[in-house]
Every structure is written in C-alpha cells, then in structure tokens.
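I hope you will forgive my troubling you with a question about protein structure. I set the record out below, with my sincere thanks for your time.
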Amino acid sequence: MRRMNTEPVADLHVHTTVSDGVLSVDQLPAVAHEAGIEWVAVTDHDRVHPDLSAPVTKRDKIGMIRGIELRADAGD
C-alpha cells in the first residue's frame, strides 16, 4: 500500500517483545506492511535487538533500522 505522496512512511520508535512490545521482530514486517509502513526502527529499551545484526536490513520488503532507546540518568 503506497500513500498518495511518494515519500516513504516510517515508524521510528517500535518496541518488540525483547523489551515491552507485543510483537516479535519476526512479526513486525507483516504488521508494518498491513499498516502501510515501509520502514521501522526497532528501539527496544537499553539494548539493540539480538536478531538484527546490521544497522539497516530489509525483511519482506520492509526496511528495518537497528536502534535503541537508551535510558540516561543525569542525577540531580
């Protein structure tokens, strides 16, 4: 599914079951495709997803970006 414009559609903040998400990394491409999303950034809490071995990959025509949601404590 392509939107009316030609720009790619992305969700750049996706968590998987490795942190507090409900989908596995293997389920993401099908769900993204169904939603019309072409790119997802997997940004689990405080770790990179162990099944994403490269910074950018394609799975079932969906671009997947290996990211991280890093917790930082600045103290007082």
In short: The chain is about 10% helix and 25% strand. The first strand starts at residue 10 and ends at 14. Residues 10-66 form one domain. The beta strands are 10-14, 39-42, 56-59, 62-66.
